[in-house]
Amino acid sequence: MTFPLRRRQLEGGTEPLSDWGIYSETGRLQEVLVGPIDFYEWRTGNSTSRRHVNAGARYDLAVAKAQYNEMLDVYRQADVNVHFLSAKAEQPYSLFARDSSVMTPWGPIISQMYSPWRRSEWVTALAFYQQAGIPIYDVVTAGCFEGGDFMLIEPGVVLCGYSGERTSEAGLAQVKSWFEKEGWEFFAVPFDSHFLHMDVQCVMVAEKLAAVCTAVVPDELLAWLKSKQIDIIDIPYKQAMELGCNIVSLGNERVLIPEESLTLKQQCHARGLTVFDPDIAMITKGGGGVHCMCQALKRSEK
Q: What does the pLDDT look like over 50-108, one tens digit per residue?
């Protein structure tokens, strides 16, 4: 079965999907899309992977696969149904399913990738949604837009960063216009491309709680989060650059955090959250963490 590439109502008022969709990053996760590990390898297109390669680190696919499977076990323990993108040799970074699409209440948006070795990933994402019977909200056509920069902070509110590379001003402006016509607030914040994506610096942990590397995010973002009455767990720069902010809220006061994110784990335990902490270090050295590897397909806000 095929679907049109735009179910979005041009003037807003698009009907939310009943079986799929999310309103926030913190509702109870029920369905998740994960990228394939089969052809993953480190590419020096980001500062994290360059740093490790230059320091002499060596990639081991067998170790990466074992760590990936440990992460998948967490989703199963949390009663999350896991879906997978198809593995393709020419798409080594399709492991990071966060970027090639983003889910909304009205269906997924198909992204436009910045890096040459990722530009075909939209085809794989689109094929998944069509095979799963999930209608497409719309497709970004105005510029680059990657899901790692985009997050639904809470129902009715979007945070989107842009470096001018992985998400360009034109791509951001197009998506912003769609959300504003649906009646949502859309807060856009620029940042330096050294940090790759917004989810390296800031991710929601639970309702009204975010992990943020305050040393690097713009002051305007900190002020905006405060205006939303969102508490901040401050993540040290070194841990953030090892994907220590890059975590997944499972909902119901549960969170998936990389083993190496010591500060965040400690703070989450102190707040009474249930923490799952698989070792994914062989994967994160390539520039992506647990948040990068997943795209929430369905969350419940109840």
A: 888 889 889 999 999 999 999 999 999 999 999 999 999 999 999 999 999 999 999 99
Task: Return the CATH fold of 28-300.
Answer: L-arginine/glycine Amidinotransferase; Chain A (3.75.10)
Give the number of other Cβ atoms within 10 Å of residue 79's Cβ.
11
Please give the backbone phi and psi of residue 235, each rounded to the nearest 5 degrees, phi first: -105, 125
β-bridge partners, 188: 160
Sign of CA dihedral 193, 295, 104, 110: positive
